[in-house]
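Worked example 3 (structure in, sequence out).
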């Protein structure tokens, strides 16, 4: 991999990926419309194209000379996808097809590594969630991510585009925007704790999540792009452990050295109750599994703030 293109490279996970690639001497082109990402996230050593993944000319330009396409751009918020159904569907599914189209048009092997989500499991409560579990999304966002996986499979059958789709569980780490009303619970709790404010918990707080540290996610993305495997595979990226939101508030208060003051509000409708992934297939395919513990990850996050 001499050059890689990264869509969504100005975002949270994309920013970490771009810095990792550059640190390994890989040349990077970022395509991002800055709808939720920030220009300053992209290091000056990367080539930056401000553009839309729906624009074929911008995608073709960004893909020039690349051997890998990391497709992370998306409307990444479940709430925003509910509100802007068609617009987010276009970015999240048609955007994926733009990658397939551009890779096919380039006429040379370009590995596609893309972001799916644990949201594809939705109502499935067959814990731990393995890739073989039923996919029953509860949101347009989850349905669109599942659509990306189906198109990736079709792209292999029809165009021989090799891909790896990653079902990210709850990713956290430095650089997640806490000011966005849609961002992850850890960045919100961090923001509140640093401001000496109570953290808000929806419902009883006994809902649980599998929190995976961003560097562990980036490791998987890079390994997938370097693997020789062909076909269209889908892999979880998860720790295999779940933590309740109440427990998270307690652990974070400790990591941030603040008293755990909790403000309970009504639960959210349609929210998944428990989420925990199975990393067995990931480990068999790529020879690693996320190992950063929540305490270690929170320590790194605290140090970066
Ligand atoms: P993010 O919002 O920080 O990054 C997404 C990036 O995509 C942003 O920089 C945004 O400006 C860009 N973008 C959006 N629409 C675009 C368009 N039309 N054209 C070009 N660029 C566009 O989100 P993130 O947390 O870094 O998520 C990255 C990917 O991982 C997304 O596909 C998301 O759905 C997926 N994912 C994230 C999590 C998580 O916990 N953060 C969990 C599951 C899946």
């Amino acid at each position: 991999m001499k050059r890689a293109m990264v869509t969504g490279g100005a975002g949270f996970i994309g920013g970490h990926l771009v810095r990792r690639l550059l640190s390994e001497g890989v040349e990077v082109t970022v395509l991002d419309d800055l709808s939720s990402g920030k220009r300053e996230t992209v290091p000056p050593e990367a080539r930056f194209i401000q553009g839309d993944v729906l624009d074929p000319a911008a995608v073709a330009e960004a893909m020039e000379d690349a051997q890998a396409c990391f497709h992370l751009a998306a409307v990444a918020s479940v709430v925003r996808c509910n509100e802007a159904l068609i617009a987010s569907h276009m970015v999240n599914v048609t955007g994926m097809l733009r990658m397939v189209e551009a890779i096919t048009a380039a006429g040379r092997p370009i590995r596609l590594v893309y972001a799916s989500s644990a949201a594809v499991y939705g109502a499935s409560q067959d814990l731990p969630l393995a890739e073989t579990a039923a996919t029953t999304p509860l949101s347009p966002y989850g349905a669109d991510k599942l659509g990306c996986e189906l198109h990736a499979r079709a792209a292999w059958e029809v165009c021989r585009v090799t891909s790896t789709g990653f079902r990210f569980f709850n990713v956290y780490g430095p650089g997640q925007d806490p000011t966005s009303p849609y961002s992850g619970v850890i960045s919100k709790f961090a923001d509140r704790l640093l401001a000496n404010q109570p953290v808000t918990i929806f419902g009883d707080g006994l809902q649980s999540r599998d929190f995976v540290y961003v560097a562990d996610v980036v490791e998987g993305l890079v390994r997938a792009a370097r693997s020789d495997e062909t076909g269209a595979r889908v892999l979880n990226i998860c720790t295999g452990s779940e933590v309740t939101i109440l427990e998270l508030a307690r652990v974070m208060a400790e990591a941030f050295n603040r008293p755990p003051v909790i403000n309970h509000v009504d639960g959210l409708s349609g929210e998944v109750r428990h989420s925990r992934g199975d990393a067995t297939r990931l480990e068999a395919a790529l020879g690693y599994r996320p190992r950063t513990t929540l305490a270690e990850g929170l320590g790194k996050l605290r140090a970066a703030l």
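Notes: The first helix runs from residue 12 to 23. The chain is about 40% helix and 20% strand.
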